Amino acid sequence: MLASILHADLDAFYASVEQRDNPRLRGRPVIVGGGVVLACSYEAKARGVRTAMGGREARRRCPDAVVVQPRMGAYSAASKAVFQVFRDTTPFVEGISIDEAFLDVGGLRKISGTPTEIAVRLRHEVRRRVGLPITVGVAKTKFLAKVASGVAKPDGLLVVPPGGELAFLHPLPVERLWGVGPVTAGKLRERGLRTVGAVARIGEAALVSMLGVAAGRHLHALAHNHDPRAVQTGRRRGSIGSQRALGRRHRTPRELDAVLCGLVDRVTRRMRGANRVGRTVMLRLRFDDFSRVARSHTLPRATANTRTILEALRGLLAVALPMIEERGVTLVGVAVGNLDDTRAVQLMLPFDRDSGAELDGALDAVRDRFGSAAVTRAVLLGRDPGLSMPMLPD
């Protein structure tokens, strides 16, 4: 069996788009976002700058960095162009974020060449057609292809040959295992488990007792490169969301409500543009100590109505305010899940038209024609619109 799964991952995506569009930024440390680092170039990463770092700390570490404000429209357009290259390469594309995807090229040998040849051509086409660097990992499993691309960054290509998977995987640090963050890595390292090979050798039962059933079984499987998942195509997103980084300045409840309004406007507009409705609203918060919390509420029926979703999220935010006051908040995110097509929603008797839907549609039309800033809420006047994290394009 050939190593026929590709993991293609754009390098420092937002910063690379800025360097592509402004030649004066090429080769220089670039930080996207001022209050909190939304993204940074590899030149800035080499100086210790990291995503989600406070802007003041980032500028202290790299005082000569060029700070630019995010241009979400440019990033979305670049993502769509790259995904078109993916789809021109193979019909089997599974997008997992705005800047990365899995591709299955196993059935293309006779018409397109070996997976390695396809990966080489893919990287060339992304550079030629979109002007961006991309790293590709090639392996027999999705997990290992993703690990390979991570090892090959930036702007690289790494093929894990069949039969050599464990020889490649086991010397790597435990952080390379999918799902191992700082907390889990700390638990493993406290017990002397520093490499993937060490995790593989201790056995599933020991991992389960250490990390719990789900995490233990998951890491045991990955440490042995057991990943039966196929590349899934045609799957529509399960949720639509947006988030804003806030920095470390104290935010009043009124300021947080303004942030929430802007995020909900953005999310519900995307939902209506995609003809989707949802039942579950989700609020995500990140605190000063980098811990996170998520809260959700399920509505009586699916909707894309801005007012309905906003009121539900305001309720979740009100419950979370004591935690925010105690711990500070550096990021607010909202999402709507349990999505369905608009046509699948059963109308409510007596079939009156929803005046809220008419207003939402009118506002969408104005913004589509004259730009997203053409009409705004009074609470957002004079405020920074913030850093929206776009979801994978349809």
From TrEMBL:
It is found in: Cytoplasm. PROSITE patterns: UMUC (PS50173). The active site is at 100. It holds the Pfam family IMS_HHH. Its EC number is 2.7.7.7. The record marks 14 as: Substrate discrimination. Mg(2+) binds at residues 9, 99. Binds 2 magnesium ions per subunit. One of its GO terms (molecular function) is DNA-directed DNA polymerase activity. Belongs to the DNA polymerase type-Y family. This is DNA polymerase IV. It comes from Phytohabitans kaempferiae. The gene is dinB.
